[in-house]
Amino acid sequence: MPIEIPAAVRTALALVDADGLDKLTVRRLAAELGVKAPALYWHFSSKRALLDHLADALVAPALDDLPPLDTPWLSWLEQAGTALHAALLGHRDGARVALGADLRTARSLGEFAERAVDVLHRAGFPLADATRCAGVYVHFVLGRAVEDQTWPDDLEATIESIPFPLMARGMRERQAAGSTVEDSFGYALGIVLAGLEAKRPAKVQ
């Protein structure tokens, strides 16, 4: 039977959601699709190549949630970063899937980064610096999403087991205040954006 890449990607995402990234292999996907592994390797030469297609699919919804490019640049980066973070957390191990993606295949992630470069360049960063800043920004969101997806279900028990009293107390205070993953991400993203604002060329301040 012919292999349709979009259908194969949807099946692979379902396998990741069900059992996690570590259990996904090209051979397992082939078995799920009812084809021989060599036929699938024609389309996905390696697991990394397969993950690039998955990254493209799971980031795509974030592009629909991006604000207009004429939005004030810090607001754009805040809203866009929140949209990307949500898209990555929308699938089990989604952030790990996207780490190290080849943007020639994971085009949705590449388009996200391209728009961030555009916004930063419009804000006054020289183009070379805009690419560096966009890299810092996107890598932060990806890395933070990886960390957020590793938090244990029983957070209270985990806090109690932390042998560092100041961190444990601070985390208890956050938990008591009702802090969520999204709250913590927003706070951390604000720190990154403050750094970018401080680095913007003085002539456009």
Automatic annotation (TrEMBL):
<keyword id="KW-0804">Transcription</keyword>
<keyword id="KW-0678">Repressor</keyword>
<dbReference type="Pfam" id="PF00440">
    <property type="entry name" value="TetR_N"/>
</dbReference>
<dbReference type="InterPro" id="IPR003012">
    <property type="entry name" value="Tet_transcr_reg_TetR"/>
</dbReference>
<dbReference type="Pfam" id="PF02909">
    <property type="entry name" value="TetR_C_1"/>
</dbReference>
<keyword id="KW-0238">DNA-binding</keyword>
<dbReference type="GO" id="GO:0045892">
    <property type="term" value="P:negative regulation of DNA-templated transcription"/>
</dbReference>
<dbReference type="InterPro" id="IPR004111">
    <property type="entry name" value="Repressor_TetR_C"/>
</dbReference>
<feature type="domain" description="HTH tetR-type">
    <location>
        <begin position="2"/>
        <end position="62"/>
    </location>
</feature>
<dbReference type="InterPro" id="IPR050109">
    <property type="entry name" value="HTH-type_TetR-like_transc_reg"/>
</dbReference>
<dbReference type="GO" id="GO:0046677">
    <property type="term" value="P:response to antibiotic"/>
</dbReference>
<feature type="DNA-binding region" description="H-T-H motif">
    <location>
        <begin position="25"/>
        <end position="44"/>
    </location>
</feature>
<dbReference type="InterPro" id="IPR036271">
    <property type="entry name" value="Tet_transcr_reg_TetR-rel_C_sf"/>
</dbReference>
<protein>
    <submittedName>
        <fullName>TetR/AcrR family transcriptional regulator C-terminal domain-containing protein</fullName>
    </submittedName>
</protein>
<dbReference type="GO" id="GO:0003700">
    <property type="term" value="F:DNA-binding transcription factor activity"/>
</dbReference>
<dbReference type="InterPro" id="IPR009057">
    <property type="entry name" value="Homeodomain-like_sf"/>
</dbReference>
<keyword id="KW-0805">Transcription regulation</keyword>
<dbReference type="InterPro" id="IPR001647">
    <property type="entry name" value="HTH_TetR"/>
</dbReference>
<dbReference type="GO" id="GO:0000976">
    <property type="term" value="F:transcription cis-regulatory region binding"/>
</dbReference>
